[in-house]
């Protein structure tokens, strides 16, 4: 089955037509100031938006930001993203203060050819993420009313069966945007006979999402290195005390099972940096994993772990990395992420970094982006792609 592309749509002519673009503008924000700390995901969608603007389309962009619970929540407003997007495009972006309400309707109606509007956060509406098909469908109807055609350029969200990625395409002529095509092209290199050793590094905080992927990845990889918030459920499964670290209690048994069946492919931290609190200035120490005090939480992997992971990465020919090794946003807990990122760049391997925060970490730590083979905008999305799963957002474009 083939997917129509943005070029197909441009060839038909879009001047004066309303084009609804699903982007992944889920950028990290500073918790105190609300400022955008990394605009990589905004930049990544510029090729698609720029081409549509140039061709004279009325461009209606929609996205989620964070995980609000189906109702407006000011801390997750896309307004700052509209400002940054306008700066990068060199023209103001019209911001609708709701997603499918009066503000959205009038903002879209007032768009001139070649102008761009951004709707408020899709996840302020329960219909976006609902498991109920009818509820999602009703929301998709409202979104689809804003477009004469639909472009999916939200690679980071193609693994979500959500209204804007899964239910809108059947309602409008639909194509894949430039970012989605590029991501799939590069990631397909990792699924078709990757050069070995093939090493995958996992971390981050979306533990329950990603634990499910490990099972599917295990048979295809040579080593699986696990750090970040992800490692504590595994350490617990080994019978260790993890204090108040991030822990997915329901998954401890699954992790025990995975460890038993992994044939030694899974490598876990041997030391971690533990702190009194989840705060930049919290008192902290490095301890061995069998010495985590019950009142402290692990916020980074330790130097011995970095050395062990580096040794496992150095012979690799293919590397995929998703999820920071620690809370890299706080300098006291950034050394593990930096160490692993440096080890990846030093290996003579084709390396892919995936995930909004992992990509942000590479840039925030001042690492040379060009020393990675590819920096993907999607963490969960790229992992599920590697798993060989049909991704709802891609499948919807195929039909
Ligand atoms: N030990 C830890 N405890 C809590 N959070 C962690 C830990 N290690 C990493 N993190 C957090 O994980 C977040 C990124 O996780 P995730 O969203 O899964 O990654 P990505 O966006 O790259 O897919 C970062 O904000 C980082 O601070
Ligand atoms: O940040 C994202 O995914 P990622 O952290 O796996 O890279 C995407 O924007 C998807 O967000 P979600 O995991 O809240 O659906």
TrEMBL record:
- Main location (coarse class): cytoplasm
Entry's PANTHER family? Answer: PHOSPHOGLYCERATE KINASE, PHOSPHOGLYCERATE KINASE 1, CHLOROPLASTIC-RELATED
Keywords recorded for this protein, A-Z: ATP-binding, Cytoplasm, Glycolysis, Kinase, Nucleotide-binding, Transferase
Q: Name one GO biological process term.
A: gluconeogenesis
Q: What is this protein called?
A: Phosphoglycerate kinase
Q: Which residues take part in binding (2R)-3-phosphoglycerate?
A: 41, 123, 160
Q: Where in the cell is it found?
A: Cytoplasm
Binding positions for ATP per the UniProt entry: 210, 298, 329, 355-358
């Amino acid at each position: 089955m083939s997917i129509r592309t943005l070029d197909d749509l441009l060839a038909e002519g879009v001047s004066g037509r309303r084009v609804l673009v699903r982007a992944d503008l889920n950028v990290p924000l500073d918790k105190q100031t609300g400022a955008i700390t990394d605009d990589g995901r905004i930049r990544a969608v510029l090729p698609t938006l720029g081409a549509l603007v140039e061709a004279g389309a009325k461009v209606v962009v929609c996205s989620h930001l964070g995980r609000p619970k189906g109702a407006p929540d000011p801390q997750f407003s896309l307004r700052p993203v509209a400002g940054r997007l306008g700066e990068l495009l060199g023209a103001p972006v019209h911001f609708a203060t709701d997603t499918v309400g009066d503000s959205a309707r009038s903002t879209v109606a007032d768009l001139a050819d070649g102008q761009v509007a951004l709707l408020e956060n899709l996840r302020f509406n329960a219909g976006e993420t609902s498991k109920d098909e009818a509820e999602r469908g009703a929301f998709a109807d409202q979104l689809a009313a804003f477009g004469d055609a639909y472009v999916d350029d939200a690679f980071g969200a193609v693994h979500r069966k959500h209204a804007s990625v899964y239910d809108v395409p059947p309602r409008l002529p639909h194509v894949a945007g430039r970012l989605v095509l590029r991501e799939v092209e590069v990631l397909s290199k990792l699924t078709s006979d990757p050069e070995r050793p093939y090493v995958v590094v996992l971390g981050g905080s979306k533990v329950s999402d990603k634990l499910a992927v490990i099972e599917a990845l295990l048979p295809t990889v040579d080593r699986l290195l696990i750090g970040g918030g992800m490692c504590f459920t595994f350490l617990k499964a080994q019978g260790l005390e993890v204090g108040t670290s991030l822990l997915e209690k329901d998954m401890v048994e699954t992790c025990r099972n995975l460890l038993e069946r992994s044939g030694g492919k899974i490598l876990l931290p041997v030391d971690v940096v533990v702190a009194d609190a989840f705060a930049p200035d919290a008192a902290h120490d490095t301890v061995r994993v069998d010495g985590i005090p019950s009142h402290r939480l692990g916020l980074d992997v330790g130097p011995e772990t970095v050395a062990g992971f580096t040794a496992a990465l150095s012979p690799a020919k293919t590397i995929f990395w998703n999820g920071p090794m620690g809370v890299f946003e706080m300098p006291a807990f950034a050394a593990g992420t930096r160490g692993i990122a440096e080890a990846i760049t030093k290996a003579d391997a084709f390396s892919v970094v995936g995930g909004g925060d992992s990509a942000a970490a590479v840039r925030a730590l001042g690492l040379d982006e060009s020393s990675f083979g590819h920096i993907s905008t999607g963490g969960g999305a790229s992992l599920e792609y590697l798993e060989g799963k049909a991704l709802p957002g891609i499948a919807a474009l195929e039909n």
